[in-house]
Design a protein that fits this description.
Number of domains: 1
Number of helices: 8
Structural class: alpha/beta
Helix content: 10-25%
Shape: globular
Strand content: 15-25%
Strand order of the largest sheet: 1-2-3-6-7-8
Radius of gyration: 19 Å
Largest sheet: 6 strands, mixed
CATH topology: Metallo-beta-lactamase, Chain A
CATH class: Alpha Beta
Length: 317
């Protein structure tokens, strides 16, 4: 495979119309979290945060999120929004924890307001309600624990501000029906729509997932200018082959993506994706992640998560 174009540093900006971008890779869940800041105002957003969870002990910890908070404070950023691209099935979101830590008190010891006195909104695309209802029914989640859990649900193509920068919400269904991406400057944060070209595309077998829709969403990404950067939600490099890469360009995705580069027909992709998905195992943190994430990062009030049993067909409860 032809190598992609070498990447310049991802977190630098010499233009007032382009954000400063920091990325953090969580090796336990292969997840990228992004911190995206306006260089002139230092207002910033967080995209797809991670809460640490040990399934062997059911213990939650905040090491990864606290590292992000340390970076935010060291850079003197004011977080105005905490964004989710979709309800993740492979990690727990730290959105509620971050919001709480950024607003637990109105002032610091030296009298300055915490986070500029701003309570950052936890935001997601408007189709979240559809997903919440599906998993609330599946896991028996009380309505009062998920309804209105997100502070803001975006309309398609809705604009929002990050200091002097503008962000735009792009509906990118396929992996999940609620999936959105966030366009800021010449950067699209596409969540689980596309991965690194050598990894390909996301699975489409979750409730409401659709390989036809994912193909169309990728064409939306491919319609962006060739130099735009596509920041992905995960990376899965083969052992010791390379370090995790947070982004590639639209041009490299169109030229190199192993699942649906330029010239791949919808029929070819859909047939391959559906066959591939039929043999995939479920994510390791599927049940824990979904129950926390439809609550926008809040924990169940009774402190209990449900994990369904898989039993031989002849067994009876």
């Amino acid at each position: 495979m032809t190598p992609p174009t070498p990447l310049p540093p991802a977190n630098m900006s010499s233009s007032p119309t382009e954000p400063i971008i920091h990325h953090n890779f969580d090796p336990q869940t292969s997840t990228f979290t992004y911190l995206v800041a306006c260089p002139s105002t230092l207002h910033a957003i967080v995209i797809d945060s991670v809460l640490d969870f040990d399934p062997s002990t059911s213990r939650i910890s905040t090491t990864t999120a606290d590292s992000l908070l340390s970076l935010i404070r060291s850079k003197n950023y004011t977080i105005v929004k905490i964004l989710e691209t979709h309800v993740h099935a492979d990690h727990l979101t730290a959105s509620r924890y971050l919001q709480t830590q950024l607003t637990t008190s109105t002032s610091s010891n030296d009298g300055e307001e915490v986070n500029g006195g701003i309570k950052p909104e936890i935001c997601i695309g408007k189709r979240i309600v559809e997903v919440q209802q599906v998993f609330a029914d599946k896991y028996g989640i009380p309505r009062e624990e998920w309804e209105g859990a997100f502070d803001k649900v975006f309309e398609d193509e809705e604009e929002f501000s990050v200091g002097n920068l503008k962000g735009t919400v792009k509906h990118l269904p396929g992996h999940t029906p609620d999936h959105v991406g966030y366009l800021v400057g010449s950067n699209i944060f596409c969540g689980d729509s596309l991965f690194d070209p050598e990894v390909g595309s996301a699975r489409c077998d979750f409730p409401g997932g659709d390989a036809h829709a994912l193909y169309n969403s990728v064409q939306t990404l491919f319609s962006l200018p060739a130099h735009y950067k596509v920041y992905t939600g995960h990376d899965y490099p083969s052992a010791d082959s390379r370090s995790p890469q947070p982004y590639t360009t639209v041009a490299d995705q169109k030229r190199l993506n192993k699942h649906l580069k330029d010239g791949t027909t919808k029929e070819q992709f859909v047939n391959w994706r559906q066959e591939r998905d039929s043999g995939l195992a479920e994510p390791k943190l599927l049940h824990q992640a979904l129950q926390v994430n439809v609550r926008a990062g809040r924990m169940p009030r009774d402190g209990m998560l449900k994990v369904p049993l898989k039993m031989p067909g002849e067994w009876k409860l």
